[in-house]
């Protein structure tokens, strides 16, 4: 799969975000902030 170099979230990144919300119990804003700082 080709993704644009400036894409905000790849399919893997989206899956990770969902996993952290559903399984980790974190709020979406907490997960988004954590992923943005990586």
Task: Supply database-style keywords.
38 residues, mainly alpha, 2 helices, 0% strand, DNA-binding domain-containing protein, DNA-bd_IS481-type
What do these coordinates show?
With 38 residues, this protein is mainly α. The chain has one domain. Helices cover 55% and strands 0% of the residues. It has 2 helices and no strands. The protein has helices spanning 11-22, 28-36. Helix 1 packs across helix 2. The model has no long low-confidence stretch (mean pLDDT 80).
Averaged pLDDT, please?
Answer: 80
How many individual domains?
Answer: 1
Shape: flat
Distance between the termini: 22 Å
Class based on secondary structure composition and strand pairing: mainly alpha
Number of helical segments with 4 or more residues: 2
Please provide a brief summary of the model.
Pfam families: LZ_Tnp_IS481 (PF13011). Helices cover 55% and strands 0% of the residues. It contains 2 helices and no strands.
What is the secondary structure topology, with strand pairs?
Blueprint: H1 11-22, H2 28-36
Helix pairs in contact: 1-2
InterPro entries: DNA-bd_IS481-type (IPR024967)
Domain DNA-binding: 1-34
Protein name: DNA-binding domain-containing protein
């Amino acid at each position: 799969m080709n993704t644009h170099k400036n894409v905000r979230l790849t399919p893997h990144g989206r899956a990770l975000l969902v996993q952290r919300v559903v399984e980790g119990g974190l709020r979406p804003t907490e997960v988004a902030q954590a992923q943005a700082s990586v």
